[in-house]
Structure formats: C-alpha cells, structure tokens
Design brief:
Helix content: 25-40%
Largest sheet: 8 strands, parallel, barrel
CATH topology of one domain: TIM Barrel
Structural class: alpha/beta
CATH architecture of one domain: Alpha-Beta Barrel
InterPro entries: GH, Trehalose_synth
Protein name: Trehalose synthase
Shape: globular
CATH class of one domain: Alpha Beta
Organism: Pseudonocardia alni (Amycolata alni)
C-alpha cells in the first residue's frame, strides 16, 4: 500500500508537538513551537482490552462479522392491506425488523468470534481512547455535492482529510435507517426526525449499505470510528407494529400493547378520520387502569400538548387479525403516537430480539464501531400503588436491559453511548453496568446558564454534584449543539431531589425552586423580544444553535444585524465553550452547525414543520460542510439552508485565525496533554463570579488546571486548590511558557481577558524533581 498524498486544497495537519496558541491569548492563531520544548508524558497503564489486543490499532481490534449479508425477500403487493390477505402478511414479514433480526442472529450462535472481547463492565476510557473527538451529523440537514448521497458525503476522502487535520476521530451519523410508518401498503413519513425506525434497511434517501461500508472503511483508514444508532425504546408504526396489530405470532410481544375486550370498547375514544389511533385523555387512562388493562399514568408525559397528547397511551381503531378476530388495542408511547414503546419483559422477548438484531446489523454487517442508544431510559414500566404514577424512570428493568445491550455490543467489539436525561444518581447507576458513555445532560444547560448570566455558580454546582455522586467526567460526552433542543428539564433537581436544599445565590433553595430559577434565567436571556430567533420547545428546553445562544448572551437582538465585528465576538465565545467541553476528561462532540457557525432558521421558512408544535426545526438548518454547492438553497431532504458565520471547512482551513483552525490547535494540545483520559479532582471556589476552574490529574501524575472566564470583562484571577502543590511551576500548555509559581496558599494568579480560556500544567518544585 502506498502512502497517500494529502488533498491540495486541505492544509496538512499541524504536528502535535508543533501546534500552540499565542501566549497572550490561548484562543488565537496557531504558531509553531520547538518540539523539544514539549513534555512527553509517560505511557499510561494499559487496560485489559489493550493488553489482550496489544499489537492491533484501536480501530482494528477483534470485531465479529457476519458470514453473509441476510438477503431481504422481495414480495409482491396484491390485494387488500388486511390480516385476512396472506400476501399482505407475507409482505409485512419480509420487511419486519424482528424477522431480519432472527435470521441475522443465527449467524453468531455457536461461533468463537463471540468470545474474543471483554464485555461485562463498561469501559469509558477505552471508548475515549478509541475516539475522543466526535462530529455529530444530522442526515436531513447536510448539503452534499450534486448527485452525492449523505453516506457518500460522510465517506468522502476530502472530508476525512479535513477531519483528521482538525482532530476529529469519530463520526456519529445520526439515524439513517428507514423510519416513519405504514398505512396499508404505503409508507408514511417520519414523525420524529428518523428516530421512529421501522426497518434495519438504510433509507435510500441517505444512501446504500455499500456506501455505509465504504464510509466505515474510509474512517478506519484515517484512524476514525463510525457511530451508528439503535433505538431500544420504541419503533415507528412500521411492519412490526402492523403485524402486532394483526396479532401475528410473537409480534404483539414487541410492544407495550394490550388487547381491550370488546365489551369495554365503549371506554375507548373514537379514532378520527385519517388517523389510525387516538390519544387517551386522563379520565380514560384512569378508567383502563382501574379495569386492570394498563399501568395508568406515568411519571412524565413527554411532548405533552392539550388535546393532542395528554397521556402516554393511545388506542387503535378496529383491526381484523390474521385469525379473523376484530380487535382494538391500547399501546404505550413515551414520545409521539407514531412511536410505540418496546416491551423488554414480554415472555417472547421479541422486543429484545429485535433490538439486538438491529445492533448486530449495524456493527457486524455494516461495520460501525459504536452505537448511540436512544430512548433507553424508559425500558421498564411497573404499576404503582396508592394512586401514585407508574414507575417508568430509573426502573431496574431499564438498567438490566441496558446492561444486556451494552454487553452485546462490547462482545462483538464495539462500544455504546446513551442520551439519558435522568438524575445524576440514575446516570451513575446505569454507568456501572450499561453503556460505556453517557451524554452530559448534567452540565450542558449549566454552561449555557454561565454564559447567559456571566456567573458560573450553577455550573460549579453541577460539576461538583457529578463528582460527589461518583459520575466520572471521563464517562461523559461533553457536547456543543446536537439535533435536539437546549435541554433545561434539570431532572436531577425537579425529580429525584425536588425537596433537597442546595445553597445558591446566598441562600438555601429547594431543588425544584432552583430548577425554576435556572429555567427562568435561560428563557429571559435567550428567548423573547430580545432574542426572537430562539424559541421555547414545550417544557423540554430552547430551540437554538450554539451561535444564537452566544448572540443572545451578547445582547444581539436581530440576526440580520450581525456584522464582522459581531462574528469575531461570537467566534471568541464559541471557542470558550469548546475549551470548557474539550478540556474535561471524556469525549468532546460538536456538530456541523458548530463547525460552520450556523444561525437558526426564520420560523416562516419551516412553518409546515412547526405546525406540530416542534420548534426544534429552526435549529436544524441545512449546511454545506465542504462548500460543494454554494448556491443550494436546501438539502436534498428539503431543509432550508441557514446562514453560516464562519464559512466552509476548506475555506476555514486556509485561514489561520478561523474558528476551525483555532479549535484545531486546542484539540492538538488536548490530545498531547492527555486531558481526555485524566481524572477530575476538584472544582474549587473562584475569586470572580464569571470564573470557572477545573483541576485534573493527568495520566503522567502531573496536575492540569483549566481556567475559563465567562464574563465580558478583564479578570485578575487567583486560582486556588488544595490539589496545587506549593512551589510548583505553572506552565502554559499552549505556549510552553512559565506563567507563575504556586504560592504557600496553594494558589497562583493569572490574568484572564473577557471570554478567555487557558490551561496550565504544574511541574513539581525543583527539590521534588531532584528526589525523583
């Protein structure tokens, strides 16, 4: 194999030992520094997986593979779409996820390939070492080259050369398999951005299986990893759900669905014309609970809308089954009515088989190296007594199911991460046996609050809470924007610790009141008349991009008024947020909306999508990473193009002061210093309300300190922590220059410009070094 030449229009990667940020401003242009000035840390102890596969690169460790791709049968469509038509039933079976999963699973039974990897315990640091910087894609928002599919674009050699240059090591594709539902023979569109999966097949709108495999190969060539999705919590109303309605075989066991006796149909609502189900109101939900059919109301009604979704239960219309019996069912859906929930404790274990088959297809057939688990916190439902809501969050069945999924993924050589917005206690419990990594819902709303208020008190509280409760920051995915809203549910404070007292703003405050205060602060600053370009999304959070969070925090009231000076201010704050997320142990993740500095869409440009009340569509503008189609007004999926403040990746990579170039330097220092696998040991008090200090113990036993200024003012910072040894030399990780010495009070001083961040490392006093 010959060595490939880099693309001519992509600057070569700056050697890791030669990249630095100017000492006067760590968030500035990249300059060379002599390699010999850099400290080379001792290699850390290897973990079991590294020892077991010591000679293999991380991306080439043992991975179980299918012996042959399962061929999907082509079945003709003829006759009525009913359970009495065998052709229709056969067609549904040929399309079903459970059927495909059963065929695929047989290839792995009795094979030695299933016993080559450790699988019992999560390995967060192993996952971080595999890929510690992720790009999170959103398929329907990516503008590709003319005639190029989404998957072909993500497998493009030029894009991966750019990613490698920047320091991006993993790509989360987002959901790319068929989603939506079926109405008779006809497909219906997705109701939740392709998170309502109905097939293991890829959606042709995003590309082919061959393109997915080629993308994985290109990623591996560049030392990267592809991260796919599975959805353990629900499906769409596709072939599997329609077969369940027809009472065919094991299929009703996939879902939380209950057959209602015909004598009780009078309790059920009529299904409106053009619909296939009707949501239950609270009174009907209670009546069905008392009649012994369902567990009743649950702890939360996600996406609650009066008259639309008042409970988590819906009733089907009359359906004639394969046995000729006419039935009506009531089914559970935590999310939208088109997302029936999977039952993980049915005697057939059909739901489990279906989900595991989907995971095996992504990992062992398509070639991805990791999976995101969606809606995996709601896998257990249990009836409560004394009129209390049913137990549906933090349930032991969810923990057990997540352990099974994550163990299976580890068993075939991959890793998992979860987006689990539960209490910190529950995240801790799930991290002990479940997914390898968890999305950082703990600190995500808190760092936005610090920016909006120029006060890090709540952010310090969330960081300390995680440490106190034993959540390792290295097990978290610290992210900028993703496909969802800026979540401010603050479940830890509104659910598990509502009545617990927390000291905040000089007084003891109940957890529930604290959450209300934080939400009010965020809404006051980031939405409303002064920031009409950000919209509240139900009770979950705020629809926005990172750039528009910053714009609102800076007092910019109209996006059209943003000029060159404003772009520079937004970019500086954006890099501050990069530093906060990247200079913690764990994964740092960002999206195309971050890379290009995208603004939200005008609501009237997506008015049809907003009709359902889902305001998140304004924060998903189409964007062109590589600048292939500068004149394109929409993505191939129809999303309108948004405004980019920073420009395409090729353009940014030719400009030393661009957002991407400066982030590249930050990530190079992050990788060289080993922050991603360090241990966070302290989040000390600060000398100014806008400051944040995080203290980390690196793998080479040196102490690193990250200092961030969330205030728009110069601060003469005094940094103090019991973990700072008196007499230690304070060295700037970016410039390599000595910036001070730790005094007898375990502290040092450092000047912090507005919205500036820096990181330093402590070298032991000369006497200590001599003793070593």
């Amino acid at each position: 194999m010959t060595e490939r030449e880099p693309k001519a229009d992509i600057p070569p990667t700056i050697p890791e030992t030669q990249a630095r940020i100017a000492p006067a401003d760590p968030l500035a242009a990249v300059e060379p520094v002599p390699a010999e000035a850099e400290h080379v840390p001792e290699p850390p102890d290897v973990n079991f997986a590294e020892y077991y596969h010591e000679a293999r690169p991380r991306t080439l460790r043992h991975r179980a593979r299918v012996r042959s791709t399962v061929r999907r049968r082509s079945v003709s469509q003829d006759g009525p779409a009913s359970g009495e038509n065998p052709v229709y039933v056969s067609w549904l079976l040929s399309q079903s996820m459970l059927g495909h999963a059963d065929e695929l699973a047989r290839q792995f039974s009795g094979q030695g390939s299933m016993w080559q990897n450790p699988y019992a315990s999560p390995g967060p640091r192993h996952a971080v070492e595999t890929a510690s910087v992720w790009f999170t894609a959103y398929p329907i928002s990516l503008i590709t080259a003319s005639g190029e599919s989404f998957l072909a674009a993500l497998g493009n050699e030029e894009l991966w050369q750019a990613f490698e240059t920047i320091g991006i090591e993993g790509v989360h594709t987002g959901p790319v398999k068929k989603a939506g539902g079926l109405s008779g023979w006809q497909p219906t569109p997705s109701v939740d951005g392709h998170f309502d999966r109905i097939s293991n097949e890829l959606d042709p709108a995003f590309g082919t299986e061959d393109e997915f495999r080629a993308m994985c190969a290109t990623a591996t060539w560049h030392g990267g990893t592809i991260i796919d999705d599975i959805v353990p919590g629900h499906t769409g109303k596709g072939p599997d759900f329609r077969l369940a309605e027809l009472a065919y075989g094991d299929y009703p066991g996939i879902y939380h669905m209950v057959e209602i006796e015909q004598s009780d149909w009078g309790m059920l609502p009529d299904v409106p014309p053009g619909k296939d189900s009707a949501n239950l109101d609270a009174a009907t939900e209670e009546a069905l609970e008392k009649a012994g059919y369902i567990v009743g109301r649950l702890q939360r009604v996600i996406f609650y809308r009066e008259g639309v979704k008042e409970t988590n239960w819906s009733a089907t219309g009359e359906v004639t089954g394969v046995d000729g019996v006419v039935r009506r069912w009531v089914y559970l859906h935590y999310f939208k009515d088109g997302q029936p929930s999977v039952n993980w404790l049915d005697p057939t274990f059909a739901g489990m088989r279906m989900v595991i088959g989907d995971a095996l297809h992504s990992l062992a057939d398509l070639g991805s190296g990791a999976l995101r688990l969606d809606a995996n916190g709601f896998l257990g439902v249990e009836k409560a007594g004394s009129g209390d809501p049913g137990w549906s969050e933090g349930h032991p069945l969810s923990e057990a199911a997540n352990h099974l999924i994550a163990s299976m993924v580890r068993k075939v050589g991959g890793f998992t991460f979860q987006e689990l917005n539960l209490t910190v206690d529950d995240i801790k419990v799930t991290s002990e046996a479940g997914a390898d990594l968890s999305y950082d819902f703990i600190n995500r709303p808190a760092y936005h609050h610090a920016l909006a208020t120029s006060d890090t008190e709540f952010l310090r509280l969330t960081l300390r809470t995680a440490l106190d409760l034993g959540v390792d920051p290295a097990s978290l995915v610290h992210a900028l924007q993703n496909h969802d809203e800026l979540t401010y549910e603050l479940v830890h404070w509104t659910a598990g610790h509502t009545d617990e007292l927390f000291h905040f703003r000089g007084e003891d405050m109940r957890g529930g009141d604290l959450a209300d205060t934080i939400r009010r602060d965020l809404c006051d600053v980031l939405t409303g008349a002064d920031a009409p370009y950000n919209l509240i999304f139900t009770t979950n959070g705020i629809a926005c991009t990172t750039a528009t969070v910053i714009a609102a925090s800076l007092g910019i009231s109209a996006l059209d008024d943003i000029g060159p000076d404003d772009v520079e201010r937004i970019r500086r704050v954006h890099l501050l947020l990069v530093m906060f997320n990247a200079f913690q142990p764990g994964v740092f993740a960002l999206s195309g909306w971050d890379l290009l500095g995208m603004l939200t869409l005008p609501p009237d440009s997506v008015s049809d999508l907003l009709n359902s009340g889902d305001t998140r569509w304004i924060s998903r503008p189409a964007h062109d990473l590589m600048g292939h189609r500068p004149d394109a007004e929409r993505s191939s999926s129809g999303m309108p193009r948004g405004r980019s403040l920073y420009g395409s990746l090729p353009d940014q990579l030719t400009e030393e002061t661009s957002f991407v170039r400066q982030m590249q330097a930050i990530l190079a220092v992050r990788k060289r210093s080993g922050v991603a696998t360090a241990r966070q040991v302290d989040v000390p008090d600060v000398s100014h309300r806008g400051l944040l200090v995080m203290v980390h113990l690196l793998d080479d036993d040196r102490t690193s300190v990250t200092v961030l200024n969330f205030a728009d003012e110069q601060v003469d910072a005094f940094v103090r922590s019991e973990h700072l040894a008196p007499g230690a030399t304070v060295t700037d990780l970016f410039s390599g220059e000595t910036v001070g010495t730790v005094d007898d009070l375990n502290g040092f001083r450092i000047g912090m410009a507005p919205f500036r961040a820096t990181a330093v490392v402590l070298e032991p006093p000369a006497d200590d070094a001599d003793e070593d």
